[in-house]
Amino acid sequence: MEQNRAIENETHSGSGNHIPWLEWLASGLGFLLALCVFGFIGWQALHDATSSPAIMVAATETSQVAGGYRVIFEARNVGGAAAAQVRIEGTISGGSGPETSSVILDYIPGHSARKGGLFFTQNPQSGHLSLRAAGFAKP
Fold it and tell me: What topology is assigned to 55-137 in CATH?
């Protein structure tokens, strides 16, 4: 009986030092995942945020409203850095002379878009509508 207990104790004490292969695999995958996350954050911090804002503006919808016309636009920041106080200008040329309208968007983060609207008295579809980002400030 004592001999069986001694053998049983030896087998249990020896198995405590053995780490199963599945545990090694899980810890290795966790380590690789953590390295990838920290590497991506570091790469973004060094490369992406240092690029200046680049605002592209495109009209998405034109509709008639009381007193004139409304042009809905999307301002997309394709640069890595954010832009604040982004001034968007729209000009309709043709018809009874050029007409300009502008709006200021508070903030456009890097790699994102914001929508806004401009009002005109002339029909934007009867003349040439041009939209542009006129300026921004660093946040």
Answer: Immunoglobulin-like (2.60.40)
